[in-house]
Write a structure and sequence with these properties.
The protein is of the alpha+beta class and 344 residues long. Helices cover 34% and strands 20% of the residues.
Length: 344
Amino acid sequence: MERLRDLDEGELLARVLPRYAATRGVVRDAAPVGPGDDAAVVLTPSGSVVATTDTMVRGRDWHDEWSSAHDVGRKVVAQNLADVAAMGAAPTALLVALMADPATPVDWCLGLADGIAEAAVEAGAEVVGGDVSAAGEGVVVVAVTALGDLRGRHPVLRSGARPGDVVAVCGSLGLSGGGLALLEAGEVPEDGDGTEARGARGRAASGLVAYHRAPQPPWGAGPVASAAGVHALIDVSDGLVTDAGRVARDSGVRLDLTGRVLRRHFADGPLTLALGEEAALHHVLAGGEEHSLVGCFPPAVDLEALPGPAWVAVGRVTEAGEDGPRVTVDDVVPDAPGWDHFRR
């Protein structure tokens, strides 16, 4: 098996960069200078650049026995571009950094690049450069910086929610958290299609695990919501209640979610089949790494008329009240702690 220590940096890049070639030109004239020089050049048609970065660490953010290199590549793109979408921006470019033990198989690095390129093409972003570096024994770290363009609109902030707004979700809820719970319990479908654990529950479990390995955010929904006049946006990276709570706190309001809607639209189906009703609702409220979008819309916006993936109204924004900004479900503060990098 060929490993990174068997190649020099130039040889590695000669194998990796062609895998990113498919991303060139997915955004017209976005990057006149891509990989190969000291730095890339990315155009900013609107005059503003949305920038974000996210990092994945082997053994912390993924386990090799659970996720392939291709999965890791797709996931690191998903979590970055969901943040771009949550600002109301369209993705334009990605910078990829890999820090790896020299004993890391070369094929793993090429699989990572394939996953990144595949997700980038789907989202409409170019891979324009990055970095590679050696790391300690057993260490693999993947870091991506994502850039986006606001297309002449103002950024959508967490602080814009107003009493009377409709709280809506675009995408799924709880699938990634449910998949993680199954993996932690040792339920790892070998082929991803549910044949290992036969029947409806097995197929449901396989779908949850697949989503956890490689989330599929509604990247295009951010600019659509921005054009519709959404007041606040956030992506569900740490859990619905945790992330909606950030909107509540920054906006100085209360977000009251409707339990019946959350159960019917998100908990019922694969989550309940695989985990049961109680656990399903827990993951809808607390499950992280979903990367769907939560928006607070003026009540006059017709959510059903918005193009692209559907937005589901799940609650209302109200005045904060004496207890201060918070998230409630049917007027009750839920016990739904989300993901925390330093407490888990």
